[in-house]
Amino acid sequence: MNTRHDWTREEITNLYNLPFLDLVFEAQRIHRENFPANTIQVSTLLSIKTGKCPEDCKYCSQSVHYDSKLEAEKRIAISKVIEEAKLALAQGSSRFCMGAAWRNPHERDMPYVLEMVKEVKALGLETCMTLGMLNQSQAERLKDAGLDYYNHNLDTSREYYSHIISTRTFDDRLDTLEHVRNAGMKICSGGILGLGETQNDRIGLLYELATLAIHPESVPINMLVPIEGTPLENIEKLDVIEWIRTIAVARIIMPKSYIRLSAGRESLSDSDQALAFMAGANSFFSGEKLLTTPNIGEGKDKILLRKLDLKVEKPKLTIHELSINAMEV
Ligand code: SAM
Ligand code: DTB
Ligand code: SF4
């Protein structure tokens, strides 16, 4: 079946409301048409600049607008990043994602991030960054340095966006995604569930992602990790079945994209996660920590992968790319 980009909200709503087992069954069927069964891609995250972010995302520990008790940290040394990247590689990660709490990178930050991309890529890892908004020239320089993916989430529906973030617009997000695409990088873009949004907002988010001219190659589905001191600290937890439905619909309407279990796995049981894999999720973040919040940890993940007989996908860099990288170091 061809990948479609003309999904209507009505079609997506109908999928979302299928009997649950029909929905999961269909998602797994489509998954197996497009990906090897029982195989998971593993990424590792590192915060390269933490806290004091000028944006006001109501869910985030790093926003300067809320008193989350987070300890801020300036740009960390590139040597430290490389140490962490080597560790991630040794533990089976194929992609290393570096995140900074910026509204956008300043020009003075560019030499730092460009050098970091070059050095991480040279290790044989796929590279990903999430640095806030990018202009066209920044996107192109990151691509030239060897950045494979840029993460920039739409987070929620267009209608609900301004209830969650007021310091930028939904269209600002789309503009950055366009710059990333024009530069020829792959896109990692998804959302966050459990923000007090309605089912219709989750459908709206899926609609925006699935009607992009090219689907994001990677679609992270975060479940809110409630952070003390933020406006969403006490929001009611989303029913896990809604999370699974969102994953299954994402798999069906973006059949060739990796669907990633991102934040919030710590609050989910092994069987919740197994059901999410059944619904077509095929990627997750490993490690003890995401950016600022705890994650499941490598040990427990290894046990889960073993229990479910899931294989870990190897990095996709070719021998040719690897030898070029090695020569450039
Ligand atoms: N500052 C950059 C930006 O916003 O694009 C990158 C980092 S930001 C932390 C990346 C994503 O993490 C957000 O878009 C959101 O989906 C997710 N996220 C942040 N805080 C979260 C939380 N408390 N629970 C779940 N997901 C969260
Ligand atoms: C994404 O969608 N989720 C990751 C990654 N992209 C950068 C970040 C999750 C952050 C969770 C909250 C924290 O650790 O601060
Ligand atoms: Fe800043 Fe990103 Fe957190 Fe928003 S989600 S406050 S942009 S670090």
Automatic annotation (TrEMBL):
Q: Which cofactor does it need?
A: [4Fe-4S] cluster; [2Fe-2S] cluster
Q: Which residues bind [2Fe-2S] cluster?
A: 97, 128, 188, 260
Can you tell me which residues bind [4Fe-4S] cluster?
Answer: 53, 57, 60
Write out the pathway annotation from the protein's UniProt entry: Cofactor biosynthesis; biotin biosynthesis; biotin from 7,8-diaminononanoate: step 2/2
Pfam families reported for this sequence: BATS, Radical_SAM
Query: What keywords tag this UniProt record?
Result: 2Fe-2S, 4Fe-4S, Biotin biosynthesis, Iron, Iron-sulfur, Metal-binding, S-adenosyl-L-methionine, Transferase
Question: What's its catalytic activity?
Answer: (4R,5S)-dethiobiotin + (sulfur carrier)-SH + 2 reduced [2Fe-2S]-[ferredoxin] + 2 S-adenosyl-L-methionine = (sulfur carrier)-H + biotin + 2 5'-deoxyadenosine + 2 L-methionine + 2 oxidized [2Fe-2S]-[ferredoxin]
Q: What does this protein do?
A: Catalyzes the conversion of dethiobiotin (DTB) to biotin by the insertion of a sulfur atom into dethiobiotin via a radical-based mechanism.
Question: How does the annotation summarize its subunit structure?
Answer: Homodimer.
Q: Which PANTHER family match?
A: BIOTIN SYNTHASE, BIOTIN SYNTHASE, MITOCHONDRIAL
Protein known as:
Biotin synthase
* Gene source species: Acinetobacter equi
